[in-house]
Predict the 3D structure of the following.
Amino acid sequence: MKKTLLILMLPSYLFSQTHSVDNNVLFMSGNDVNSDIAINTFYNSIDTCDISWNIIYDSLPTNWEFSICFPDCNNIGIVSGSGLFFPNEKSYLNCHMYPNGAFGEGVVQMEIVTNNMYRDTITWYGQVKLASNTEGLNPASAYHKLIKITDVYGRDVTDYNNKLLLYIYSNGKVEKKINLR
Protein backbone atom coordinates (compact mmCIF):
# COMPACT_ATOMS: atom_id res chain seq x y z
CA MET A 1 0.00 0.00 0.00
CA LYS A 2 2.81 2.45 0.89
CA LYS A 3 4.63 1.68 -2.37
CA THR A 4 1.49 2.34 -4.39
CA LEU A 5 0.91 5.66 -2.65
CA LEU A 6 4.54 6.69 -3.24
CA ILE A 7 4.31 5.81 -6.95
CA LEU A 8 1.08 7.82 -7.29
CA MET A 9 2.63 10.87 -5.60
CA LEU A 10 5.91 10.75 -7.57
CA PRO A 11 4.55 12.31 -10.82
CA SER A 12 3.10 15.30 -8.96
CA TYR A 13 6.42 15.81 -7.19
CA LEU A 14 8.42 15.58 -10.42
CA PHE A 15 6.14 17.96 -12.32
CA SER A 16 5.19 20.46 -9.64
CA GLN A 17 5.09 24.14 -10.56
CA THR A 18 8.44 25.90 -10.16
CA HIS A 19 7.45 29.39 -11.30
CA SER A 20 4.78 31.60 -12.80
CA VAL A 21 4.65 34.67 -15.03
CA ASP A 22 2.03 37.32 -14.20
CA ASN A 23 1.19 38.21 -17.83
CA ASN A 24 2.39 36.52 -21.01
CA VAL A 25 0.91 39.07 -23.45
CA LEU A 26 1.47 42.78 -22.86
CA PHE A 27 0.48 45.92 -24.75
CA MET A 28 2.18 49.32 -24.65
CA SER A 29 1.60 52.54 -26.53
CA GLY A 30 2.87 56.07 -26.92
CA ASN A 31 3.51 58.70 -29.56
CA ASP A 32 6.45 59.51 -31.81
CA VAL A 33 7.85 62.12 -29.42
CA ASN A 34 8.27 59.52 -26.65
CA SER A 35 11.86 58.33 -26.45
CA ASP A 36 10.77 55.06 -24.87
CA ILE A 37 7.62 53.01 -24.36
CA ALA A 38 7.70 50.14 -21.89
CA ILE A 39 5.58 47.74 -19.87
CA ASN A 40 6.52 45.08 -17.38
CA THR A 41 5.31 41.90 -15.81
CA PHE A 42 6.91 39.65 -13.19
CA TYR A 43 8.57 36.24 -13.16
CA ASN A 44 7.75 34.57 -9.83
CA SER A 45 9.95 31.71 -8.66
CA ILE A 46 8.30 29.21 -6.37
CA ASP A 47 11.34 26.93 -6.25
CA THR A 48 14.96 27.46 -7.31
CA CYS A 49 14.89 28.32 -11.02
CA ASP A 50 17.83 28.31 -13.40
CA ILE A 51 16.61 30.26 -16.42
CA SER A 52 17.81 31.21 -19.86
CA TRP A 53 15.99 33.54 -22.21
CA ASN A 54 16.28 34.64 -25.79
CA ILE A 55 14.36 36.75 -28.24
CA ILE A 56 12.68 34.40 -30.69
CA TYR A 57 10.87 37.00 -32.80
CA ASP A 58 10.87 40.71 -33.37
CA SER A 59 9.09 42.74 -35.98
CA LEU A 60 9.65 46.45 -35.48
CA PRO A 61 9.36 49.45 -37.81
CA THR A 62 12.53 50.81 -39.38
CA ASN A 63 14.55 52.88 -36.87
CA TRP A 64 12.94 51.26 -33.81
CA GLU A 65 15.12 49.49 -31.24
CA PHE A 66 14.37 47.52 -28.07
CA SER A 67 15.99 46.36 -24.86
CA ILE A 68 15.04 43.79 -22.23
CA CYS A 69 15.21 44.03 -18.44
CA PHE A 70 15.38 40.47 -17.11
CA PRO A 71 16.82 39.76 -14.61
CA ASP A 72 18.84 42.99 -15.05
CA CYS A 73 18.45 45.78 -17.57
CA ASN A 74 20.39 45.07 -20.75
CA ASN A 75 21.71 47.35 -23.46
CA ILE A 76 19.99 47.66 -26.82
CA GLY A 77 20.99 44.70 -28.98
CA ILE A 78 21.27 42.09 -26.19
CA VAL A 79 18.92 39.26 -27.24
CA SER A 80 19.68 36.52 -24.72
CA GLY A 81 20.61 36.03 -21.10
CA SER A 82 20.40 33.80 -18.06
CA GLY A 83 19.87 33.95 -14.33
CA LEU A 84 19.34 31.99 -11.16
CA PHE A 85 16.30 32.71 -8.99
CA PHE A 86 15.79 31.41 -5.51
CA PRO A 87 12.44 30.35 -4.01
CA ASN A 88 9.84 33.10 -3.55
CA GLU A 89 11.59 35.75 -5.65
CA LYS A 90 9.57 38.18 -7.75
CA SER A 91 11.70 39.39 -10.69
CA TYR A 92 11.05 42.32 -12.97
CA LEU A 93 10.45 41.28 -16.62
CA ASN A 94 10.31 44.24 -18.99
CA CYS A 95 10.65 45.28 -22.62
CA HIS A 96 11.51 48.83 -23.72
CA MET A 97 10.80 49.90 -27.28
CA TYR A 98 12.56 52.99 -28.60
CA PRO A 99 10.67 54.45 -31.59
CA ASN A 100 13.38 57.04 -32.40
CA GLY A 101 10.80 59.46 -33.78
CA ALA A 102 8.99 56.92 -35.99
CA PHE A 103 5.40 55.80 -35.64
CA GLY A 104 4.05 52.30 -36.24
CA GLU A 105 3.44 48.99 -34.52
CA GLY A 106 5.90 46.35 -33.39
CA VAL A 107 6.20 42.99 -31.64
CA VAL A 108 8.96 41.46 -29.51
CA GLN A 109 8.66 37.85 -28.35
CA MET A 110 10.84 36.17 -25.74
CA GLU A 111 11.16 32.52 -24.77
CA ILE A 112 12.16 31.70 -21.20
CA VAL A 113 13.43 28.20 -20.43
CA THR A 114 13.28 27.25 -16.74
CA ASN A 115 15.38 24.39 -15.35
CA ASN A 116 15.87 23.10 -18.93
CA MET A 117 12.29 21.83 -18.76
CA TYR A 118 9.60 24.52 -18.82
CA ARG A 119 9.11 27.03 -21.65
CA ASP A 120 7.22 30.30 -21.39
CA THR A 121 6.66 32.75 -24.22
CA ILE A 122 6.22 36.44 -23.41
CA THR A 123 4.93 38.76 -26.15
CA TRP A 124 5.09 42.55 -26.08
CA TYR A 125 3.04 44.57 -28.57
CA GLY A 126 3.96 48.23 -29.01
CA GLN A 127 2.09 50.95 -30.85
CA VAL A 128 3.37 54.48 -31.48
CA LYS A 129 1.10 57.07 -33.05
CA LEU A 130 1.97 60.45 -34.49
CA ALA A 131 1.87 63.24 -31.93
CA SER A 132 -0.34 66.18 -32.84
CA ASN A 133 1.26 69.59 -32.97
CA THR A 134 -1.36 71.70 -31.23
CA GLU A 135 0.77 74.79 -30.56
CA GLY A 136 -1.19 77.84 -31.68
CA LEU A 137 -3.90 75.69 -33.33
CA ASN A 138 -7.32 74.53 -32.37
CA PRO A 139 -6.64 71.05 -30.90
CA ALA A 140 -9.66 69.57 -32.70
CA SER A 141 -8.37 70.66 -36.12
CA ALA A 142 -4.75 69.66 -35.34
CA TYR A 143 -5.95 66.19 -34.38
CA HIS A 144 -7.01 65.55 -37.99
CA LYS A 145 -4.41 67.57 -39.88
CA LEU A 146 -3.75 66.10 -43.34
CA ILE A 147 -0.04 65.31 -43.73
CA LYS A 148 0.08 63.92 -47.26
CA ILE A 149 -1.78 62.11 -50.01
CA THR A 150 -0.18 59.11 -51.73
CA ASP A 151 -1.13 56.34 -54.10
CA VAL A 152 -1.30 52.75 -52.81
CA TYR A 153 2.46 52.39 -53.40
CA GLY A 154 3.28 55.37 -51.18
CA ARG A 155 4.21 57.69 -54.06
CA ASP A 156 3.22 61.35 -53.97
CA VAL A 157 0.49 62.16 -56.48
CA THR A 158 -0.47 65.24 -58.46
CA ASP A 159 -3.59 63.87 -60.17
CA TYR A 160 -6.26 63.11 -57.56
CA ASN A 161 -8.97 61.85 -59.92
CA ASN A 162 -10.15 58.30 -60.67
CA LYS A 163 -7.60 56.40 -58.58
CA LEU A 164 -7.36 54.93 -55.11
CA LEU A 165 -5.54 57.38 -52.83
CA LEU A 166 -4.39 57.20 -49.23
CA TYR A 167 -4.98 60.29 -47.08
CA ILE A 168 -2.51 60.25 -44.16
CA TYR A 169 -3.36 62.37 -41.11
CA SER A 170 -1.29 63.65 -38.18
CA ASN A 171 -3.12 61.41 -35.70
CA GLY A 172 -1.96 58.27 -37.56
CA LYS A 173 -5.28 57.72 -39.30
CA VAL A 174 -5.16 56.62 -42.95
CA GLU A 175 -8.24 56.94 -45.16
CA LYS A 176 -8.69 55.28 -48.54
CA LYS A 177 -10.54 57.48 -51.03
CA ILE A 178 -11.40 57.51 -54.73
CA ASN A 179 -12.29 60.87 -56.31
CA LEU A 180 -14.47 60.08 -59.33
CA ARG A 181 -14.38 62.80 -62.02
